[in-house]
């Protein structure tokens, strides 16, 4: 997956707050098939290969329920290695858990659902990059009905949990002001706009991917950030290829007035909508 390794900048991990750690763990472990990499009383680090930290769920002290109209997570998207893997989990979910949707985006095929707290989840596979169509550096994406019957023909075995090659393919965020978000993610973080969806959503990426981050104001134009202990996105990490790149990013973030702090080897910034990002190398 060349779009999720150096020299590309990509989403590495996502950390979510939940209202009940046991209920959420049952979902992510038993329904989606992630494995426990590390367990604390109210925090679990999950993996798809028993080695790589991929996804964190945590029940914070005095957790606040998911709020109606705020910025934050729209969905986190797990990218599966093959179309057969998508077929296997589709069979599994059809028998175990309600789907919210299933779409063909031309560049990818995707299933949509939500965890017990309403956090959005996409599970998808990419079509080969040679099949993506570009015009003036903009990739053609759309939302069509998934040909589920055709996908199911790829199934060769029973679902056995998240395959080892599963990664976070992208994250989609709700923001309050699309212009401010575009400036932060392009001028600040150095990503490129590769698709515009009407006047309320853009998709940005590095290295020619169809998108590493989606940004929209469909339900959040002018909305505030959620409470610090609210259910939803706590932070996500962006993997940068090297320290030189990170230094350049930090310089640009300072130039646009972004908030920046440091905790050990991690540099932390916050986008204009209040979404927290860990910059790692």
Automatic annotation (TrEMBL):
Database matches in InterPro entries: Glyas_Bleomycin-R_OHBP_Dase, Glyas_Fos-R_dOase_dom, Glyoxalase_1_CS, VOC_core
Keyword terms, alphabetized: Metal-binding
Domain named VOC: residues: 10-126, 167-281
Domain of life from the UniProt record: Bacteria
PROSITE patterns found in the cross-reference section: GLYOXALASE_I_1, VOC
Record protein name field: VOC family protein
